[in-house]
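Milestone 3.1: sequence recovery, worked example.
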C-alpha cells in the first residue's frame, strides 16, 4: 500500500472536522457512508494514526486528526493552485486576463495568487505565459500581456511597477558537500571562484547574482551547469552535482527536511524585490487590478535560514 494519502480522503477528513459528522461529510462528496468510513480507515492505516473518534453523537477528530486536517487543508490549497495555474497555461489565448511571469514567480507564487483570484471570480478566464524576467516587459509593451511579474534587480524603464514580495538567494549544497560542514561563512571570492549550478543568463535570479557579485567587487560566477528553471537547479544540487545560488522560495521545504543545506556567505547582499509591472499607456483596472490586490494580501514572508551576512545585515 502506498504511504501517500489520496486527495479525496484528505478532503473527507477536513469535512468531518468541519461538520462533526461522517454522514454529512460523505454527502458533500457524493459518497455512501460505508465508502467514506472505508476511506478514513485506509487513511488511518497509511498514516499509522487514529484520526477520527466515532461516537453515537457523531464523529470528531482526535488531536492527531486535527493536526493532520490542518496540514491537509494546506495541501488541498496547493493542489487547487497547481490546477488553476495549469489551466491558465492551457488557456492563455483569448483570456480575459493575460499574465506574464518570470520562472520563479510562476513556479512558486502565481498558482496561489491565481487560485485566490479564481475563488473570488470563478468565471474569470486567465491565461499565463511563463518566461524570463527580461522578456516580460516586451510582452507588456507589445500588448500580449495585461500584467507581468519579474524578479530582476531593477524595475524596467518606462513601466509602472509595484513590489509584491521580497525574496533572497541562498547558496545551497547537498548534505554530503564539504561546504555543508563549514563552521565559518563562505567568502565572496570563494563563491565566485567555485563552479556553480546556475540559472541561465536573462533570468532574474542570474541577473541578481551577477549584480551582487559586481557590487561586492568579485568576479562573475563560474557556471558548472546553466539550467532553465529553479526546479532543475534544485534537483541538480540534491543529486550532488554541485553548489547553487537559488531563490529561497524554491528550497524552503528541502532545507527543513535536510535534503539541502544553506551555506552562510559574508560580504554580499542577495536580497531582492519581486515586482508586478504593467504597460504605462493606461491605468491598471479590472481583473489585472484585482490580481494585484490579491498579491498584496498574500505576500510571502522571508524565512530566517541565515544565509547571508555582511552587506546583507547592514
Amino acid at each position: 500500500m502506498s504511504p501517500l494519502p489520496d486527495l479525496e480522503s484528505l478532503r473527507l477528513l477536513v469535512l468531518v472536522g468541519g461538520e462533526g459528522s461522517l454522514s454529512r461529510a460523505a454527502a458533500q462528496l457524493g459518497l455512501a457512508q460505508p465508502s467514506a468510513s472505508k476511506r478514513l480507515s485506509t487513511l488511518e492505516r497509511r498514516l499509522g494514526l487514529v484520526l477520527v473518534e466515532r461516537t453515537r453523537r457523531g464523529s470528531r477528530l482526535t488531536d492527531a486528526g486535527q493536526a493532520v486536517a490542518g496540514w491537509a487543508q494546506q495541501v488541498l490549497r496547493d493542489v487547487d493552485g497547481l490546477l488553476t495555474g495549469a489551466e491558465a497555461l492551457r488557456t492563455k489565448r483569448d483570456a480575459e486576463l493575460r499574465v506574464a511571469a518570470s520562472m520563479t514567480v510562476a513556479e512558486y507564487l502565481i498558482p496561489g495568487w491565481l487560485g485566490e483570484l479564481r475563488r473570488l471570480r470563478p468565471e474569470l478566464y486567465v491565461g499565463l505565459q511563463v518566461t524570463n524576467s527580461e522578456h516580460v516587459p516586451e510582452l507588456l509593451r507589445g500588448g500580449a500581456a495585461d500584467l507581468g511579474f519579474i524578479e530582476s534587480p531593477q524595475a524596467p524603464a518606462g513601466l509602472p511597477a509595484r513590489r509584491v514580495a521580497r525574496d533572497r538567494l541562498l547558496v545551497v549544497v547537498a548534505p554530503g558537500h564539504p561546504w555543508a560542514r563549514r563552521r565559518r561563512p563562505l567568502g565572496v571570492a570563494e563563491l565566485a571562484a567555485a563552479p556553480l549550478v546556475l540559472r541561465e543568463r536573462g533570468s532574474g535570479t542570474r541577473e541578481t547574482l551577477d549584480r551582487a557579485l559586481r557590487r561586492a567587487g568579485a568576479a562573475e560566477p563560474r557556471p558548472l551547469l546553466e539550467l532553465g528553471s529553479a526546479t532543475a537547479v534544485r534537483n541538480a544540487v540534491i543529486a550532488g552535482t554541485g553548489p547553487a545560488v537559488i531563490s529561497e522560495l524554491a528550497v524552503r521545504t528541502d532545507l527543513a527536511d535536510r535534503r539541502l543545506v544553506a551555506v552562510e556567505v559574508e560580504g554580499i547582499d542577495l536580497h531582492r524585490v519581486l515586482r508586478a509591472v504593467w504597460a504605462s499607456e493606461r491605468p491598471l483596472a479590472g481583473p489585472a487590478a484585482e490580481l494585484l490586490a490579491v498579491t498584496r494580501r498574500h505576500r510571502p514572508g522571508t524565512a530566517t535560514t541565515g544565509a547571508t551576512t555582511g552587506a546583507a545585515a547592514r
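Confidence is low (pLDDT under 50) at residues 301-314. The longest strand covers residues 161-173.
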